[in-house]
């Protein structure tokens, strides 16, 4: 009688251990709550849970801004999800044991969106430890967070992986304030619809300010210029959007100041059927609180 009972207990333990829930594992580790949040919101947690031999390279909360920052202000939600996919590998890696140098495949590679092999990485032993090198980017595994059988490994890495091909294109230089062109002329080629917010990208980094402009003294013209610049970018987008959606509903978007990434108070972009315009707006806008969501909304509609 004793032996079958022991076996039954073992089987019961094995049966419950077979399933894992990455969300719950990470909930036990408050240091990674933000990554856990991204994993859940992106829907990738349930993908991870269906797999069998997988490593999630997590970034502590203190470095999550590096991940968002690497994408820039023009990133779409899809790019954020892709960068999370980059941190999920279809190989069980236990940093506590000796690992052979090997090529590992990320979940991003499986989407077919990675140019060539940009979604695969090399796992290599270096003096610093176990490195992951991936298309112009690398990181080091700092420690094991959780190992479950040969099924789920959660490891902490010292910085986010930001491989080529996932990141938005480098911003094109913005024209200096004062020479901001009028909103784009009407005929627009259809190709840019799939590009990551090209107009908005033109207005992003502080480095695009014209050399020698004393930012203290010129902040009013700069805000005006960026409003115009952004306005024309959004108008260009809205145009594409309106052309592709003849029966669109009335939509209101926040207008974002690209220099501070904050909303421009009381100015909204309204889209109604094939028309769109900037107008004064009081109160909350339910739809889009940032250019990230705005571009996403337009691109995914
Ligand atoms: C994993 O855990 C989270 C949080 O407890 C829960 O919401 C989710 O439904 C779980 N997923 C599965 C597949 O059980
Ligand atoms: C990984 O290693 C292979 C073989 O050495 C090499 O061809 C490839 O370029 C490497 N990939 C990366 C991302 O460094
Ligand atoms: C890792 O990235 C750093 C820059 O962040 C670079 O200096 C270094 O050469 C890279 N290492 C490898 C093995 O690619
Ligand atoms: C790993 O997954 C396999 C297949 O689902 C399962 O049989 C095994 O018990 C799991 N191991 C652990 C430790 O969860």
Automatic annotation (TrEMBL):
Protein name: FAS1 domain-containing protein
Alphabetic keyword roster: Cell membrane, Glycoprotein, GPI-anchor, Lipoprotein, Membrane, Signal, Transmembrane, Transmembrane helix
Domain FAS1: 19-161
Gene Ontology CC annotation, any one: plasma membrane
Membrane topology field: Lipid-anchor; GPI-anchor
Location within or outside the cell: Cell membrane
Annotated transmembrane regions: 223-242
PROSITE patterns reported for this sequence: FAS1
InterPro entries in the cross-refs: FAS1_dom_sf (IPR036378), FAS1_domain (IPR000782), Plant_FLA (IPR033254)
Species of origin: Selaginella moellendorffii (Spikemoss)
Predominant location: membrane
Signal peptide: 1-19
